[in-house]
Design brief:
The structure is a single chain. The chain is about 40% helix and about 20% strand. It contains 9 helices and 11 strands. By secondary structure, it is an alpha/beta fold. It has a 5-stranded mixed sheet with strand order 3-2-1-4-7, sandwiched between helices. Strands 9-8-10-11 form a 4-stranded mixed sheet. The mean pLDDT is about 95. The longest helix is centred in the last third of the chain and has 25 residues. The structure holds zinc ion (ZN). Zinc ion binds next to loops.
Length: about 300
Amino acid sequence: MAIAIGAVMTDHIVAGRLEDQRLTGQPIRDPEDAAVLDALSAMPCRELVERLAGHIAALVDATAGADAIGVAVPGIVRHGVIEDSPNLPQLKGMHLAEDLAHALAAHGVAAPVHVANDADAIAAGVAATHGQMNKLVRVWTIGNGIGYGRWPYVEGVWEGGHITVSLDPKERYCGCGGVGHLEGIVGYRAMRMRFLDMEPEEIFANAKKGDERCREFADLWHRALAAATASFIHLAGPGRFYFTGHNVRFLDLPLLRSHLESMVRMSPLQSFSLEVLPPDDVTALLGAGVSAVRALAR
Ligand SMILES: [Zn+2]
């Protein structure tokens, strides 16, 4: 039986203990109160690692131990190093796997640490819970930023949120500064910058009421997401796409599908499926743990 601890660090930390790809017991959440937003964005790296190590150590059973520790974080993650993380900027350049292993050693925990991108971890978690470990699973996470995850993991950057979906030079709202990016249209922060006079929630509500400017934008929002998805279909083939994250509430799946159908016309590529997953930390936590156990075998 493989025992893993899975953890997710986004604007909060969630950690849980897994036995053979199943969550056992109640996960730990920090901060406990879900109403406290953005608790981690100003926290120094050292403190983040200490807190993470403390929560993980608390979940390790003293006698059973743990075979692997998996941590999911937003950003570009390669070989345990966080190369960039726009929404937790203090993590940039951090050797998280190494630093966390050191911090865990101080708690008497010696299991190997594996760090994954949070969207990749969700894809792994979806694959594990849907019994699709041998199939290609792709996930869009729609939040402040836009994440793209896939299972099985393949070496690469995979910053799908920054794929170019517009040639309009005025499309410059992406958090990375790049022109024409998906996140610059679909991301929450980008929407706030575009509509200085209303919040994204109001934009989508007004679009439903028939406001022309809002309706046009809601359509652009769906076309942008369809364009990025179509690009991945043209590169890696059709298959399953999942949509999740805090702002998946803005997604109108039939509208997305109709745009996607207009963009993907080659018949062997039209067998794609689209599914909304309500956002939940457990899928990412599970995926982080599953990825860590799989990484042991590599
Ligand atoms: Zn960008």
